[in-house]
Amino acid sequence: MATSSLKGARVLITGGLGFIGSNLARRVVELGGQVTIVDSLVPEYGGNLFNIQDIESQVRVNVSDIRDGLSLRHLIRGQDVIFNLAAQIGHAASMNDPWTDLDINVRGQLNLLEVCRDINRDARIIFASTRQVYGRPQYLPVDEQHPVCPVDVNGIHKLAAEWYHLLYHRVYGLRTTVLRLTNTFGPRMRVRDARQTFIGVWFRNVVQGVPFEVWGGTQVRDLNYVDDVVEAFCACATVESTVGQVLNLGSSEVISLKQLADLLVETAQAGEVIVRDFPAERQAIEIGDYYANFDRIRSLVGWTPRISLREGIQRTLDFYRWHLDHYL
Fold first, then answer.
1. Residue 176: its pLDDT value, please?
2. Would residue 243 count as lying in a domain?
């Protein structure tokens, strides 16, 4: 993966104070990129200034919203790469407040693309989408040709944002790529609740010595450690063949949620798992088993996950044992 070509690049990361965005910022700084972070710092969406506490002198931070067109015009001008991660992230939240989800995940995305169309058509744009667009799998592993049928409002809006990115590539020549992420975990993820990922609460409870719940438990998933996800973003930004593509991320380590919970307890040598039935309101948007075919991104940029589940769990435990107070 030719990520070395990010050296000297001007890079904008929307949602850059959040979980994946802040880890991505750290990596681009390591590669010699000039990083500008834009984040609304809305408490519910995961932005946290502590996420960049040891690189803040090496990045520029602008607290603003992707729905603010005037701010975006200033930020997007002259950028070489735009990692577009700004989003409303909660699946249940999208069902309770679909209008805010629509405003951020659709109107905000269209706003960014319109600004790019007007003043910066040459920027590489990598959009963070989600496996949620597939809904309940009809076959496994899920490849990019699988039908899309989201089961929640968030999935519908992320799919709409994908189509905007692809349409603006086809019609206006914007150099967009869509990455469909699976479950991502690691340092700097939101752990105070399950808005971002179910596994965050598990780590918090294990570190605090509190039992944690697994709903159902038999569903299988693939998970990516955040460093591997960051490498995928960087690789796609530097390989021209990914332009106009929709690409799955995924892992060859497929595991049931109960097995994952047991692995966390085993690795931590602490914790207690309680298996419960799904709450009725969550069962309606549960997708069942899911794991992805990621052959397309592997063939285009050589990406494949390198951090095992066990190693990723250990690294994440080590991080929160030192820093949990900053994430509560």
1. 98
2. yes
